[in-house]
Design brief:
The protein has about 525 residues and is mostly helical. It folds into 2 domains: about 75-290, Growth Hormone, Chain: A (Up-down Bundle); about 315-520, Growth Hormone, Chain: A (Up-down Bundle). It is about 70% helix and about 5% strand. It has helices at about 80-100, 105-115, 120-155, 155-175, 185-200, 205-210, 215-240, 250-275, 290-295, 305-320, 320-350, 355-385, 385-405, 410-440, 445-475, 475-495, 505-520; strands at about 5-10, 20-25, 30-40, 45-50, 60-70. The protein has a 5-stranded mixed β-sheet, sandwiched between helices. β1 (about 5-10) and β2 form a beta hairpin. α4 packs antiparallel against α8 (about 250-275) and α11 packs antiparallel against α14 (about 410-440). It is globular and about 80 Å long. It starts with 5 loop residues before the first strand and ends with a helix. One of its GO terms (cellular component) is membrane. Pfam families: MFS_1 (PF07690). InterPro entries: FLVCR1-2_SLC49-like, MFS, MFS_dom, MFS_trans_sf. It is a multi-pass membrane protein.
Length: about 525
């Protein structure tokens, strides 16, 4: 998932080379700072971007700062500790994601084991177990902005430690809930894990910007996000290999204990490591861009962050293009969440006692998504065709869902291939959708616009999971998938309606033009 951070590009006006670093305008009165480092000193200047839309662009200034390269080299340093911190965070994120999916991938076993403490009605039983996944989505919605604000104002260490502690607490509670009569205690533990995830999802880009050099930021962010995806992948594979519906209850219980105790011990280890080793930021900045961000921190003293946040929200909801992206993004990601949550129910309708293969199919869904995110992000970087790239990927997701649904009952091995297509395009859409939103909402903070996109995804994820689950129980997996296909068609139409009003690109073009004028002077 792409989040607010630092991007860089190189340009060569005239015969000299400049390194331009675009730093997120978050919390800085909606300004975008372009830090330009050259080998000679030029006076700082400021220009105004075109007022494309007065209703949605409340502040649109770009400040260009020129700094001699050799004067700040002594203030920049990379610390080896950064890799340890990244490893600790990625492991915490991995454990959180594993907790998310570990119940639902063996849904039939969970219903069988906890039958005594579940409702008598079969539909309500399935709904109850589905909430093991949906509670993650539900908790994220009200907590996303408080968690973002805490990360911004109180720092990396507190956010990471809170997330790790809540994940540990939830995992411990689940150890004590291995009893057929204690379904609701298990749900309580899952809820604490869900709350913890809200404090860790926004960390990767922040950690990368604070600790890593300009050439490492993309890699560090990818590793941070990869930890979460890897946790989901392991969660798809491990539980189906250990717990089986055909086993006696005491064997199922023993294997549940093995899973939950192992996870709890690992959570305890990484919580302690986060307390000992994670720091808010290094003594010296890791990059020139981060150094300038630190120097500009004085600007925040006179700025009311909450007022900026309210103004940003107002501007976002006045922006028709953003509303289209907000809904279409929520639909696409909500469909992905629904498929992930109900994968066992969808496939076991056609193939009974295939939990291990269903787990492997879930692994394919995640792994192909990682490939898709990289490929689609690369294509967008090269083409800069924000709308058309997004639209092509959305249409491909729609078609992949149709293929997946039509071939579901033919052969279980065919599902591996169709799932690869589905994961590739649906996850590949995520970074592209974020970038499209950033383009149509500039200069509003990317953190605010992306936070709303994530909230939209959770809302649609709950709605789609609940609705598709009910349809599958009443009419079968095929019609449940038809519902998702219809939703993706609506999302495709909404994406096609987004106008090519890319304000961030216009602002950058004006900045580059100003740089060229200075170079030719």
């Amino acid at each position: 998932m792409l989040r607010p951070g630092v991007s860089s590009l190189s340009l060569k006006p005239g015969d000299s080379s400049l390194d331009v670093r675009a730093v997120s305008s978050e919390q800085l009165n909606d300004k975008l700072y372009l830090l330009v480092n050259s080998n000679h000193e030029i006076t700082a200047n400021q220009l105004r971007t075109p007022e494309i839309n007065h209703e949605t662009t409340n502040v649109s200034k770009i400040q260009i700062i020129y700094t001699p390269e050799n004067s700040i080299d002594t203030e920049i340093k990379l610390y080896a500790k950064r890799w340890l911190i990244l490893f600790i965070f990625s492991s915490i994120s991995l454990l959180s994601a594993f907790n998310w999916i570990e119940y639902n991938i063996v849904q039939d076993v969970v219903i069988f084991y906890y039958n005594q403490s579940l409702p008598d009605d079969q539909v309500k039983k399935i709904d109850a177990v589905n909430w093991f996944s949906m509670v993650y989505m539900l908790c994220y919605i009200p907590l996303v902005f408080p968690a973002m604000f805490l990360l911004e104002r109180k720092g990396l260490k507190l956010s990471c430690s809170i997330g790790a502690f809540l994940t540990l607490l939830g995992s411990l509670i689940k150890c004590f809930a291995v009893n057929p009569n204690l379904f609701y205690l298990a749900m309580t533990g899952q809820t604490f894990c869900a709350i913890g995830q809200a404090f860790t999802l926004g960390i990767p880009a922040r950690l990368s910007a604070l600790w890593f050099g300009p050439n490492e930021i993309g890699l560090a962010t990818s590793i941070g996000v990869f930890g979460n995806q890897l946790g989901t992948a392991i969660g798809f594979v491990v539980p189906p290999r250990l717990v089986h519906k055909k086993d006696p209850v005491d064997v199922i219980e023993k294997n549940f204990y093995s899973i939950f105790i192992t996870v709890a011990v690992l959570c305890a280890i990484f919580f302690i490591l986060s307390l000992i080793f994670v720091s808010n930021q290094p003594v010296k900045a890791p990059s020139r861009a981060q150094l300038e961000v630190r120097k500009s921190a004085a600007l925040r003293k006179d700025v009311n962050d909450f007022d900026i946040f309210k103004e940003s929200l107002k501007n976002l909801f006045k922006n028709f293009d953003y509303i289209l992206v907000l809904v279409s993004y929520g639909v696409n990601t909500g469909v992905y969440y629904s498929i992930s949550t109900l994968l066992n129910l969808i496939i076991s309708n056609y193939y009974e006692n295939e939990n291990e293969n269903i787990g492997l199919i879930g692994l394919i869904l995640v792994a192909s998504g990682l490939i898709g995110a990289v490929v689609c992000g690369f294509v967008l970087d090269r083409t800069k065709q924000f709308k058309y790239t997004t639209l092509v990927i959305y249409v491909s997701s729609f078609l992949a869902m149709i293929i997946f649904s039509l071939t579901l009952q033919i052969n279980i091995w065919l599902i591996f291939w169709t799932t690869f297509l589905l994961g590739f395009f649906m996850t590949g859409y995520l970074p592209v959708g974020f970038e499209l939103a950033a383009e149509v909402t500039y200069p509003v903070s990317e953190g605010t616009s992306c936070g709303l996109l994530n909230s939209s995804a959770q809302i649609f994820g709950i709605l789609f999971t609940y609705t598709q689950g009910r349809i599958i129980i009443s009419y079968g997996s095929f019609y449940g998938n038809v519902f998702l296909i219809a939703m993706l068609l609506i999302g495709t139409i909404l994406t096609a309606l987004v106008r090519q009003n890319f304000k961030r690109q216009e602002a950058i073009k004006m900045a580059l033009k100003e740089i060229e004028e200075h170079e030719h002077c």
